[in-house]
Amino acid sequence: MSKHFSRKIEDFVCKHCGQKNKGNGYTNHCFNCLYSKHVDRNPGDREASCQGLMRPIAVHLKNGEYIITHRCEKCGLEKDNKTTPQDNFDALLKIISGK
After folding, report:
1. What CA–CA distance (Å, rounded) separates 59 from 49?
2. Do the Cβ atoms of 96 and 66 come closer than 8 Å?
3. Does residue 1 surpass a pLDDT of 50?
4. CA torsion sign, 83 to 84 to 85 to 90?
5. I need a surface site. Which of 25, 71, 83, 99 has the fewest CB within 10 A?
6. Helices marked H in the chain
């Protein structure tokens, strides 16, 4: 299994909070609640059969960028995703503080 990235520009409605999100081809989580969905085996391929919600469980700093760790509520897979300028800063702070 390679990690070849497939860029797909997709708008979506978050399955956790209902927020409408405008995708840019790199969008991988809701800008409001920061939840994601387990849809990829490799970034952008949309080949995962799981389809579980990915809860944001941690935020850490890597090479000067904030990274969100998501855990699938269905299968337990954990993945890291970069934050974006559109992300809800208060939601990021709640994850960092553990609330």
Report:
1. 26
2. no
3. no
4. negative
5. 99
6. 89-97
H or E element that contains 72: strand 65-72
Q: Tens of pLDDT along 60-84?
A: 999 999 999 999 999 999 999 999 9
Beta-sheet pairing, 12-13 with 20-21: antiparallel
Residues 6+ apart with CB under 8 A from 25: 7, 8, 9
Per the CB < 8 A criterion, the answer to whether 70 and 78 are in contact is yes
Only one residue has tokens 């559109």, namely 86
> SS3 of 94, please?
helix
Residues 95, 4: Cα–Cα separation, whole Å? 29
State which H helix or E strand residue 68 sits in. Answer: strand 65-72
